[in-house]
């Protein structure tokens, strides 16, 4: 699998996947066929898009992907794939209304690390899990696959999280952290909320139990044959937590009028919005600033594939924007002074793709916050997020029934596939 972190590669990957995005996807998406390149001449994973790293990095956006899919498939054929794309938008909107869930994950993760540092038995169990030495073949295979490839199939993520929580009885926050450190698509909302969903904390009381027969069935096409999962827990009792996470109202930026960008401004590209193209800016920036902060995902460091993807995406996105707008580009490195960069360039304002709850926001807001309070930040938020997040208050079903009206309202019909899409 070619994981080049560019918009061109995202479009190429999308074009190759498009023929499979209809009924084929609906029928086969549950199969974990193993990573591409595991054996010479092997077909590899073709039943899912593997677009998540590019979507997470904002090299391509959800609306563009849906447009392209609807050009080739009827809404009915594409329903399953489009619904999965909306899961991503739903999780983002849900976390945005309960940012305390992210803050609480960060503090309980810290406490969980303290616990393993203080307890040799726990530490051994944790190390065996992340190094793929538990003796549960399927789990160990996925642990190695994650570290090596920076990607796991959705079903594998569900089984892995379930075994971590209910069989190995490790704190879920440590597993979520392991994913964040290694997934190229590591995303505060999708990752944290999916782990909470498996644990019975998202849809309260409803857990996901991994079963050996289900794993064998859905891994049957892997080059080495089905994966075995020995001695899994019979019970998956929901976890509970003392804290209630109240919902806070959304306070989202509206669409940006061209007048708001009439004066010279700087464009900030970051880990979750590395390309200017999906932003559809109404006026050109005079400076492009790139800020890559993959190390902020975890206090325990980030894996090579994930870090390289994020850094490559921001560096490449900055170069593309610099060329497209014929302006200067500058990196805002960690510890650097954003105010000084702007002052030196004679720029008063910065346009920043919206920073949803998560580690990118945590990393950048310390310096962006004061500028925002002085009304020097113009926040950019996509229409699909703005329209969908309103409905992401409780379970996914509320969003699911709004998919058709939202696509209709935004005119996402398949008539406007992304520019530059091959084929
Ligand atoms: C425990 C756990 C942790 C996860 N962590 C992440 C994460 O950090 N980042 C992340 O992007 N996804 C995460 N997911 C969701 C999902 O597994 C991935 O988005 C998906 O596997 C990516 O592969 P794909 O691009 O081939 O997906 P496809 O099946 O091709 O789906 C297309 C797109 O829809 C979105 N999508 C699909 N399934 C889901 C889902 N269940 N939830 C949210 N969005 C979805 C993704 O953006 C994906 O790229 C997690 C799921 C679980 C169970």
UniProtKB/TrEMBL annotation:
<feature type="domain" description="Cryptochrome/DNA photolyase FAD-binding">
    <location>
        <begin position="81"/>
        <end position="209"/>
    </location>
</feature>
<dbReference type="InterPro" id="IPR036134">
    <property type="entry name" value="Crypto/Photolyase_FAD-like_sf"/>
</dbReference>
<feature type="binding site">
    <location>
        <position position="25"/>
    </location>
    <ligand>
        <name>FAD</name>
    </ligand>
</feature>
<keyword id="KW-0456">Lyase</keyword>
<keyword id="KW-0274">FAD</keyword>
<dbReference type="GO" id="GO:0071949">
    <property type="term" value="F:FAD binding"/>
</dbReference>
<feature type="binding site">
    <location>
        <begin position="185"/>
        <end position="187"/>
    </location>
    <ligand>
        <name>FAD</name>
    </ligand>
</feature>
<protein>
    <submittedName>
        <fullName>DNA photolyase</fullName>
    </submittedName>
</protein>
<dbReference type="Pfam" id="PF03441">
    <property type="entry name" value="FAD_binding_7"/>
</dbReference>
<dbReference type="InterPro" id="IPR005101">
    <property type="entry name" value="Cryptochr/Photolyase_FAD-bd"/>
</dbReference>
<keyword id="KW-0285">Flavoprotein</keyword>
<dbReference type="InterPro" id="IPR002081">
    <property type="entry name" value="Cryptochrome/DNA_photolyase_1"/>
</dbReference>
<feature type="binding site">
    <location>
        <position position="81"/>
    </location>
    <ligand>
        <name>FAD</name>
    </ligand>
</feature>
<dbReference type="GO" id="GO:0003677">
    <property type="term" value="F:DNA binding"/>
</dbReference>
<dbReference type="GO" id="GO:0003904">
    <property type="term" value="F:deoxyribodipyrimidine photo-lyase activity"/>
</dbReference>
<feature type="binding site">
    <location>
        <begin position="84"/>
        <end position="91"/>
    </location>
    <ligand>
        <name>FAD</name>
    </ligand>
</feature>
